[in-house]
């Protein structure tokens, strides 16, 4: 059985650090790597070089994804895709996305160093867009690979008015330079070929993604890694509570219909009901606004959002219904009017049960306590689930912080993740031998 | 005993309505009458004409106040000042301020029609600025009359950079035109003379102000008018609650330090503690903001304001202390940090006890149930209290609405107010006979 070098995970972390600065960032003094920008191109060229060193061929697919290929034992072998994204949010962290790509490369490097061929090929994907980092749509490139991309999205433009088609053309044209880029085959098909990034169902065995947790659960339990059970189902509401605006000095307490006091009771019930479910359900009020918004005026209207998530849709829906019922009760008791609009409803994307078992076994073999947790955030895996069974491994990140320059991963944790991923791959190989 | 014509109050209301449009407003399609603007000048000229018709001489004092004078029985008689303000907030209502001036004129009109001279003169003031309608300071003109104006305020300018001195000069220069303005003596002393608007202590017997309630208490009790016990003491705080920002999807409920949930509990306690005091204490959260403020992010910081008022300072302070104690408890229980800044502390300005008794007697004589209530809002009376004993009469306004075009006063209520004011004047005259 192949195990990674004891420093493979640490190297993956170091490479993420290296990619956190110019020329791999579009902003000075921080990391912002947007889809199809010069920083993205420089990153693809650099990471393509690392793929090559690891024993892979590398290409840029028609959606701007970097794809490293490590052949299987037989030429007609299906592929295991290991991937994550290379783009980042503005002023983001170095590990959200790239760490999964770097660990995929380390897996292949270890297998290649051992001369190991598997009953499946490994394709390492560095997806171009997951964060919606440049265009007003997220996860464009994993949706292209999974074949679930809406054709209408091909006409979108960035905030400067540059159409996706032009950005894609410029990205591919950058390949004329000298250096490591020459090792990359590119597919300058332009927008018409964007959909050619699609992989054929049946030829992809599974999708494996390692990603930082972006939450504090593993850290709280003292664990380096955990098996992801799926991407949580999301519901999002916009709530408007209307009462009676008034002078803060002249309106006696008993005559008030204060929508902010009502909204406060609602915010507390959101927290209380999610807690009371004592499950993976999370519910959050992230935005609140009181109008007209002056210290000496009782608000007439309050607006806030509610975000409810769970790995299990029915559980999410149960808590969401409890919250909405409570809002009705509170509004009735306080003689307030309200309007609730559902603005977002994303189904759950469960990871494959058999692959979760393989992951748990790999965790135990690597000396780790198995721990399953749901992903509250969306990941490329949720799109890849339309193509093949998916598996995800979460890696502890300091303080649960992400989308922030303070994002931090312990290299020792990345080493553990690498061992678990290799164990997962060997177990998958044994199953398909 | 002189009583007003049965329609004197209704005429006062109609005059307020007339002043709600051009040329008495600085904005189209609504009322905004700011201090020392063309609309203010047109208003002063028009109201000065009404003063003249009512049997008064009229002048503009050095602070831009319109002053009508009705002499007493003896030339050395002290004065009863009846006043309120002529300016308005932007897109305000017609009665907040002007109604008190118009009712003062009606009082004199009734006395003059009856040939009645009193042991005191009556000076009817139309204060130029109460709302802070133009300059970054409120109640400039009643403070000038009371002699409590800070000299530093003389250097202020409006949002267009026009200094108060220039505005005052232009206001006085407008007097060169023809028409009713000619009846007004003006005092074009400019900024240097602003303080000459001050009235001498001892020469002013009392100050009487009628004003719309700006709250719903009288309406709720089915009363047209009420005796004001004083201007409430105000405290205002700015509160910042800090927790831990996080991803709304990835941060489990038990690991959250959500400052918005904490702030919601604090907002509820503000309401609850003010209610529990079961007195005239009012407490309001009018502004709230959650940062960074995205539906999918647990806020890291929440900012809100607290406004606490009562006619009795100690009562206000007791409730404010209870609120601050509760904030500490909530923050401790939730492991949140907080900072509280006191940004405003205005002492109570009680009305004169003997004058309140006169007002109650006048109320009963006019067939009204006596009702005392505190003013949660500030009024010119609070400044005049530095000069002489003060009395205030509140008039019911529809829905408690003010600072809004929907502000409404029933003319019948204004008629009642006029009878009460005349009764008050007669009782004051009897006392000083």
Total domain count of chain A: 2
CATH topology value of the largest domain in chain A: Aminopeptidase
N-to-C terminal Cα separation of chain A, in Å? 14 Å
CATH architecture of the largest domain in chain A: 3-Layer(aba) Sandwich
Into which percent range does the helicity of residues of chain A fall?
A: 25-40%
The count of β-strands of chain A is 16
Query: Looking at the chains present, what oligomeric state does this protein adopt?
Result: homodimer
Kindly state the mean pLDDT of chain A as a whole number?
92
What characterizes the major β-sheet of chain A?
9 strands, mixed
Largest interface: A-B, 60 and 60 residues
Q: How many H/I helical runs of chain A?
A: 11
Q: From the helix content, strand content and strand pairing of chain A, which structural class follows?
A: alpha+beta
Principal-axis shape of chain A equals globular
> In terms of per-residue confidence, which ranges of chain A show pLDDT below 50 for 5 or more consecutive residues?
178-182
CATH homologous superfamily caption of the largest domain in chain A: Zn peptidases
Write the H/E string of chain A, N to C. HHEEEHEHHEHEEEHEEEEHEEHEHEH
